[in-house]
Write a structure and sequence with these properties.
Blueprint (H helix, E strand, L loop, with lengths): L1 H26 L4 E7 L18 H9 L1 E3 L2 E2 L5 H10 L3 H4 L24 H6 L4 E6 L18 E4 L15 H7 L14 E3 L2 E4 L7 H15 L5 E6 L20 H23 L6 E7 L26 H4 L3 E4 L7 E3 L3 E2 L3 H9 L15 H4 L10 E6 L2 E7 L2 E7 L10 E10 L15 H15 L19
Parallel strand pairs: 1-8, 1-9, 2-11, 3-12, 4-5, 4-8
Antiparallel strand pairs: 2-10, 5-6, 6-7, 9-10, 13-14, 14-15, 15-16
Helix pairs in contact: 2-8, 7-8
Bound molecules: magnesium ion.
Length: 477
């Protein structure tokens, strides 16, 4: 009896200590996370990535105080699959969010990101985070696919691209831009809605003020949730065409309306970082800035620039999938330039590691935890390979500095046409980031190795129902 009382006492003490330990872990400040995602912004469209006529003082400062990643990729070179990759940490070919027939979701699409997928927001919400999605979603418009069904407490934004739903009889944007570089559309030409959670709050969305309102919503959410961990996914519709900027920003840049739109995004970044500093949250908040895919080249000066990188949106050349990326976390992330490999799919495992969250164990994840690199514990990224999928095919693989193209194709609308290479093209993209010099004939061993890497990767892909091809039947006339 005495022994059992003693054991009980020991257990009690142990239990109290355990509780104390758990409480300490919970009390340890979980970092806040903010992702600022631009749409169709190219590698060469920010001051800190070399643009000569777009001023981005806030992003430049964010880069100077944080890490500028020069080899950071997305999971696909167009909106919907790229966003699915970021949200799930998985290649869109695994989630049904990639198609050869429909490159993205449209307003009449009936598919979306399946509820069986686990998003960053699902994981962080389970850890007590307040979660908000602001801006472009593009992962499905049925209520079961909207952000509020994917782990976000709240959503405010345009659920798809801002050029969808053009009013019948509206001028053709591409044609207008070809005739007049300064062409400015009226927002009434596009009947896109703003949703608040699942309800239409405004239609057509006043796109002139959209960028500023998105940034303000993010600031509001930070203020309202300053006392608890939060995750904000702020996905701007700009600088995707049609371009819009508020009155204050029209004519603000030397780079026309495109530059005005980017400079307004930059101002919003400034407001968000200033709010975090003002509330003394900066030392506990990781902010990431990047873009969903490269510039939309057929729109000429209304599209962006991939800088020194080849091609743009829609392609598996570097200009389509390598994005200008900045990580900022004062006091935790040492300032500098990071040339190691990373992708948007690495964000989910990285956030998991930093918040003490278990990543999903029951599925293949395509991301890696980058936190040891970000926090300066190692110089080496856990990622050494990037897979470049387009539609439903693996077009290219990069491993270390070597990139093999098995299939090449230019931006849709302007070409060049698709070529399946019997002998893959090979580029050393650290020496030749512009992919100018095919050196396959000098390195047959590397070509063979990369072909084997591709085959092993393709063998891990299992067929899943395609979400992008589910569309409402056309109404009978
Ligand atoms: Mg895009």
């Amino acid at each position: 009896m005495k022994k059992s009382i003693h054991s009980l006492f020991v257990l009690l003490i142990f239990g109290v200590l355990q509780l104390g330990f758990v409480a300490r872990v919970h009390a340890a400040d979980k970092p806040n996370f903010v992702i600022i995602f631009a749409d169709d912004l190219g590698y060469g469209d920010l001051g800190c990535f070399g643009n000569p006529t777009i001023r981005t003082p806030n992003l430049d400062r964010m880069a100077a105080e944080g890490q500028r990643w020069t080899s950071f990729y997305v999971g696909a070179s167009v909106c919907t699959p790229s966003r699915a990759a970021l949200m799930t940490g998985r290649l869109p070919i695994r989630t049904g969010m990639m198609s050869a027939r429909n490159r993205v979701l449209f307003p009449d699409s009936e598919g979306g990101l399946p509820s069986s997928e686990i998003t960053i927001a699902d994981l962080l919400k389970g850890q007590g985070y307040a979660t908000a999605a602001v801006g472009k979603w593009h992962l499905g418009y049925q209520p079961r696919y909207l952000p509020t069904a994917h782990g976000f407490d709240t959503y405010w934004g345009v659920p798809y691209s801002n050029d969808m739903d053009p009013e019948p009889g509206s001028p053709n944007y591409a044609k207008m831009v070809a005739q007049d570089a300064n062409y400015a559309a009226k927002f009434e030409q596009f009947n896109v809605p703003i949703l608040h959670d699942t309800d239409v709050a405004e239609r057509p969305a006043n796109q002139n003020t959209l960028t500023g309102r998105y940034s303000d919503k993010a600031v509001e959410f930070i203020r309202a949730h300053r006392d608890q961990p939060f995750f904000i996914y702020l996905a701007h519709n700009m600088p995707h065409i049609p371009l819009f900027a508020s009155e204050d920003y029209r004519g603000h840049s030397r780079r026309g309306l495109f530059g005005d739109a980017v400079e307004e995004i930059d101002a919003g970044v400034g407001k968000i970082l200033a709010t975090l500093k003002e509330l003394n949250l900066d030392k506990n908040t990781l902010v990431i800035f990047t873009s969903d895919n490269g510039p939309w080249l057929p729109f000429k000066t209304h599209g962006g620039s991939a800088g020194l990188l080849r091609q743009g949106k829609g392609t598996t050349f570097e200009g389509g999938m390598r994005e200008p990326t900045i990580f900022w976390w004062p006091g935790r992330i040492a300032p500098g330039v990071q040339m190691e490999l990373g992708t948007t799919m690495d964000i989910l495992p990285t956030f998991c590691a930093l918040s003490g969250t278990q990543p999903p164990q029951d599925r293949i994840l395509d991301g890696y935890d980058l936190s040891p690199v970000l926090l300066g514990k190692t110089d080496k990224s856990p990622r050494d390979t990037v897979y470049y999928w387009r539609e439903e095919k693996l077009f290219a693989v990069r491993q270390g500095p070597w990139k093999a193209h098995f299939i090449t194709q230019g931006c849709y609308g302007i070409g060049p046409k698709r070529v399946v290479h019997e002998v893959p093209e090979l580029y050393q993209v650290e020496n030749d980031p512009s992919e100018k010099y095919n050196v396959a004939e000098f390195h047959p061993d590397i070509v063979t190795r990369l072909k084997a890497v591709a085959e092993r990767h393709i063998a891990t892909i299992k067929p899943v129902p395609n979400q992008l091809d589910l569309r409402k039947p056309a109404a009978k006339k």
